[in-house]
Amino acid sequence: MGAGWTFAGEATQGGGDSVTLIEGSSFCLSERGGDLAPGTPHGLFHRDTRILSGWQLRLDDEEVDALSVIAEEPYEALFLGRARPRPGHSEATVLVERRRYVGAGMREDLVLRNLGNEAAACVLTLRVEADFADLFEVKEGRVKPRGQYGVDYGDGVLALTRTWRGESRGVRIAAEDAICSPGRLTFRAVVPPRGTWRTSVLVTPVIDGVETPTSFPLERPVEQAGPSVRSTEWRETGPRVKVGDESLALTLRRSCQDLGALRIFDPERPDTPVVAAGAPWFMALFGRDSLLTALMALPLDPQLALGTAQTLARYQGVKTDPVTEEEPGKIPHELRFGVEASLALGGTVYYGTVDATPLFVMLLGELCRWGVDPDAVRELLPHADRALEWVERYGDRDGDGFVEYRRSTDRGLANQGWKDSWDGVNSADGRLAEPPIALAEVQGYVYAAYRARALLAEHTGDPSGAEKWHERARLLKERFNERFWLPERGWYAEALDGGKRPVDALASNMGHCLWTGIVDADKAPAVAELLLSPQMFSGWGVRTLATTMAAYNPMSYHNGSVWPHDSGIVAAGLRRYGFTAHARRVAEAVLDAAAAFGGRLPELLCGFDRTEYAQPVPYPAACSPQAWASATPLHLLRVLLGAEVCVPHGVLRLDPALPARYGALRLTDVPVGAARVGVTVARDGGVRVTGLPSGMRLSETPCACPAVDPPHPG
Putative glycogen debranching enzyme N-terminal domain: which residues (predicted)? Predict the structure, then answer.
């Protein structure tokens, strides 16, 4: 767990001009000139440890003036800089190129280009520091020296280590022509007139004395390196989209690219991809975040969704541990590798989440509906049953039929739903909810999990099991609408508190309830209108909390900000209940925000109204790229297409509601079961589908299967 999981403040900011490069479990956060400035959150991180805390390039002991940064891949960037003018010259003649590749560690190719007519004699130095701080310490600005530090250097090699509490972390920095000394690599170069000089530096992590193989070895072309091959395969084997609107096309391309970069691979099962939560601080497997991302991006890569489910199943709880909050059947919240997390936990897995467990079962239902590897999904059924046993035995501790949470110790997260900041759940008058807390959306997830399990039972020849789970879903829906609906308010309570009193804030959580289908049809119109009301809808998406609530603050983390994934789920819920115009309005707003951010949606943005500021206001500490934000444009495209798949019942549903400004759209190679399907939507809304698997039919209405309610009138 570590203090990072209970931290109640804001993450330390890297600055608006920071550059983040990511690949697998490594990432680098730097200045736009390429330097890692000591004393800041900058650094090269590997498996949750900062292996470089300082990396500053100097030419003749002078800083290099940054010119531009070109990020060609999520793991690669070219930093261009200009050396200060040479003595006796009024103009600079030496251009500095730093091409950085981040993988298991880092490779940096340094090139000096002499644009003058005389040879340039240069002394190039790299100033190096490594504090081996845990990621949480860096994120929260509480780094302090720990353990014993060591340095070793020789011809072309500088090695730094730290030993603490019986564990060793180190880094090996190597360059053939470098003169190494403590904290410094020095290169002496003479660059011919109109010529170049180049060298390469390899930075390799060392864990308990064992070097991690570098991702970008010098003897292999970069395009043949593992990250390059995986990136190329990701682009070439996935679905392709062509759309008339260039801004939307850019957003969709960027989303696919970022999701590819956020894949991490289980060291014990390197062929099993999972999706990390986000960069820079959450390059780890998260229960809730990874599951929601997998659900939203499933049509892009079903194997990523399956790998995420399989890996979370491996870490499913087996015992009761109040420190880690592990319980039998519970799906974890977060997996970490750092020394600090291990010491605080007695392990590296923390289970303090109330929603990951039902979301896990929901994902298995979607995998079934999309026809993804039926044998692999069937093998996960015992994990689904253990998850639902947790829901009913541990999740519903008081037997009232609702799942609630209360942290086991003072080390745990106080709030354990997706709004997990310390003040994320409060009443209309601003009072914080007292635990145990039963969140509205969590009851919706449990409802959808029951429906998913009913489908899985039906699909595996267990009709009595299907009926059992269907009945449990029906009873929960009935109880939920009796207890959570506030007739005097006209909306659903955000939660029930420890005294079973409604937490009566007007919040976006009820949009998740639409998404799962737990909302009664007669109450849905009021919910839809409120979600698009001026109090809730900012013009860039749906606010987490209405402007009329006492705790509203558009610059807060969860009390009035706009989270793209939250708005995406709201849009899907609106579409599910037939409120197509409402859903389209939300989708367009979020996609407009994406365009304003250059095609990449951040984790969240401030909740200021679009009429107040013509551009969305960034939230300063937001992760970017972040997994469920990256998946949101793909999810919204599915919402706008009205696309649902149910391979077991042979149905593909399409009911396009694309705004005219997006023009015609063409999708190819969309995985549906074992087939690859193509979809074309003309400007007039006409639909053509190719490649449907045998036995499937095109429909304009949802499939009447146990996982989906009958369509609601909007």
Answer: 21-200
Position 71 scores a pLDDT of 86
Cβ atoms of 224 and 599 within 8 Å: the answer is no
- The rounded distance, in Å, linking the Cα atoms of 696 and 419 is 39
DSSP 8-class letter at 647: G
- Report pLDDT for 623: 87
Instruction: Reply yes or no on whether the pLDDT at 345 is more than 60.
Output: no
Instruction: Provide Rg for the chain, Cα atoms.
Output: 26
The Cβ of residue 244 has, within 10 Å, a number of other Cβ atoms equal to 15
Structure tokens at 423: 């003040």
User: What confidence score (pLDDT) does residue 72 get?
Assistant: 78
CA torsion 163-164-166-169 (nearest 10°) is -50
Whether residue 379 contacts residue 357, with contact meaning beta carbons closer than 8 Å, is answered with no
Average pLDDT, the chain: 92
Domain 238-653 belongs in CATH node 3.40.50.11890: no
Task: In whole angstroms, give the CA distance from residue 714 to residue 642.
Answer: 14
Domain chopping of the chain, boundaries: 3-221, 238-653
Residue 293, SS3 per DSSP? helix
Q: Strands 65-73 and 157-164, how do they pair?
A: unpaired
Bridge partners (DSSP) of residue 52 are: 44
What is 389-434 written as a DSSP string? HHIIIIISTTSSS---B--SSTTS-S--SSS-STTSSB-TTSPBPP
Structure tokens at 439: 């969140």
- Closest residue by Cα to residue 582 from 506, 652, 524, 666: 524
Which residue in the block uniquely carries the two structure tokens 């020849």?
Answer: 461
DSSP secondary structure letters along 510-563: HHHHHHHT-S-TTTHHHHHHHHTSTTTB-SSSBBSB-TTSTT--TTSSSSS-B-
**17 Cα distance to chain centroid:** 21
CA distance 581 to 589: 12
141-175 per-position pLDDT tens digit: 889 998 999 999 999 999 999 999 888 999 999 99
pLDDT digits (tens, 9 = 90+) for 413-432: 999 999 999 999 999 999 99
Instruction: Identify which of 626, 627, 24, 22 has the alpha carbon closest to the alpha carbon of residue 267.
Output: 24
Q: What is the pLDDT of residue 86?
A: 74
297 and 259 in contact (C-beta within 8 Å)?
Answer: yes
